[in-house]
TrEMBL record:
It comes from Cryobacterium fucosi. It holds the Pfam family Aminotran_3. Keywords: Amino-acid biosynthesis, Aminotransferase, Pyridoxal phosphate, Transferase. The lineage of its organism: Bacteria, Bacillati, Actinomycetota, Actinomycetes, Micrococcales. Its EC number is 2.6.1.11. Belongs to the class-III pyridoxal-phosphate-dependent aminotransferase family. This is Acetylornithine transaminase. Pathway: Amino-acid biosynthesis. GO terms for molecular function: identical protein binding; N2-acetyl-L-ornithine:2-oxoglutarate 5-aminotransferase activity; pyridoxal phosphate binding. One of its GO terms (biological process) is L-arginine biosynthetic process. InterPro entries: AcOrn/SuccOrn_fam, Aminotrans_3, Aminotrans_3_PPA_site, Class-III_PLP-dep_AT, PyrdxlP-dep_Trfase, PyrdxlP-dep_Trfase_major, PyrdxlP-dep_Trfase_small. Its cofactor is pyridoxal 5'-phosphate. PROSITE patterns: AA_TRANSFER_CLASS_3.
Length: 400
């Protein structure tokens, strides 16, 4: 294996500072390769990756099936434009209809990221007008749906929007309580957007019964229930999609991240009559659903299915919770999330120094907010990696 260490990774922080847009903080390390649940930096230092590119690398790094799928497809045909289809595109659309439970009436729109999937869903919501009567779109405080203008409008974080106003109008943010749902939903609402677990807010679970009540109210008032599964989807929470834990059927879901295993892909999946809202020419994307990314996604989802990784996410998630409980640390107040999307709640706002201490011990985790450490390891995680996590995170906790 040749490491991409030279020429020129030396002084990379300065090069990053000079060449990259100032939208990003200086990165923590320069990573040059990965294998399984581990990555290496340019100095050959090894890290246990318990973030997986923020819930993206479902199969870990350089998984042989992923490598084979990309290599095979890029050598065959990588891109065809929307004037043509390709076998992997249709295979993926049909696969997604199956694993999302969208069934025969379901339809899939492909794009390239989570934000784009939510942009498509935003436009879908605008089509649910009921002859102009439905003008309101609801979303939750503290939610995160992406950084493009429509996704910003949907996101419940005003500070993120402030410098970029005006964003598309008509979106109201409500509190994440059943009472707030009951108060806000009526026949003037076109759609309700929500995350089943608010990942970027700090891995915050929905209150018990919230999703079912949302489904009841949306059905009663003709409101589209649109679930953002960008972070929670593709098996991460121990179900193919997190809404499935609650036994409800949404009207649409948005997905990205973990279905691509590292290649950029997003999708909007619709259910039932919602599948008939878009008509020809109303939306599109040059790259969306191209053969390279869809072949890769077929391989990722195929391995998740073949190797029982959805069940592994559930089981390993439980084991991780047991490990966190074993630390018996007064710094840890609670563990949130589901499956392999875990938020470790801290008594004090020390998530940033704790994540830095973990990195110094060769462990990648992240501070989802100032008092939450987020864990989102690859779905392939096993006994060895869990033991390694226990050792390294234990050292990080002790070093604080
Ligand atoms: C729930 C959710 N929706 C949307 C997005 C945006 O996805 P992307 O960064 O691919 O645009 C994210 C990204 O973190 C997310 O967690």
């Amino acid at each position: 294996m040749t490491d991409q260490t030279s020429p020129g990774t030396e002084h990379w922080q300065e090069r990053f500072g000079a060449a990259m847009m100032r939208t990003l903080a200086t990165p923590l390390a320069m990573l040059v390769r990965g294998e399984g649940c581990y990555v290496w930096d340019e100095n050959g230092r090894k890290y246990l990756d318990f973030l997986a590119g923020i819930a993206v690398n479902s199969l870990g790094h350089a998984h042989p099936d992923l490598v084979a799928a990309v290599t095979e497809q890029v050598g065959r045909i990588a891109h065809v434009s929307n004037y043509f289809s390709s076998p992997p595109q249709l295979e993926l659309a049909e696969r997604l209809k199956r694993i999302t439970g969208a069934g025969d009436a379901g339809r899939v729109y492909f794009c390239n990221s989570g934000a784009e999937a939510n942009e498509a869903a935003f436009k879908l919501a605008r089509l649910n007008t009921a002859g102009g009567k439905r003008t309101r779109i609801l979303s939750l405080h503290e939610s995160f749906h992406g950084r493009t203008m429509g996704a910003l409008a949907l996101s419940g974080k005003p500070a993120m929007r402030r410098a970029f106003l005006p964003v598309p109008g008509g979106v109201e943010h409500i509190h994440t309580t059943i009472e707030a749902l009951e108060e806000a939903i009526d026949d003037s609402v076109a759609a309700l957007f929500l995350e089943p677990v608010k990942g970027e807010a700090g891995v915050i679970d929905l209150p018990a019964g919230f999703l079912r009540r949302a489904r009841e109210l949306c059905t009663r008032h003709g409101v589209l229930l649109i679930i953002d599964e960008v972070q929670t989807g593709a098996g991460r929470t121990g179900a193919w999609f997190a809404f499935q834990h609650d036994g409800i059927t949404p009207d649409a879901i948005t997905i990205a991240k973990g279905i691509g295993g590292g290649l950029p892909i997003g999708a909007l999946v619709t259910y039932g009559a919602t599948s008939e809202l878009f008509s020809r020419g109303q939306h599109g994307s040059t790259y969306g659903g191209n053969p390279l990314v869809t072949a890769t996604s077929n391989a990722v989802l195929g391995v998740i299915e073949r190797d029982g990784l959805v069940a592994n996410a559930a089981r390993r998630g439980e084991q991780l919770r047991e490990i966190v409980a074993r630390f018996a640390s007064p710094r840890i107040t609670e563990v949130r999330g589901r499956g392999l999307l875990i938020g470790i709640g801290l008594a004090e706002p020390v998530a940033l120094p704790l994540a830095a201490a973990a990195l110094a011990e060769g462990l990648i985790v992240n501070a989802a907010n100032e008092s939450t450490i987020r864990l989102a390891p690859p779905l392939i995680v096993g006994d060895t990696e869990l033991a390694d996590f226990e050792y390294r995170f234990g050292l990080a906790l002790a070093s604080l």
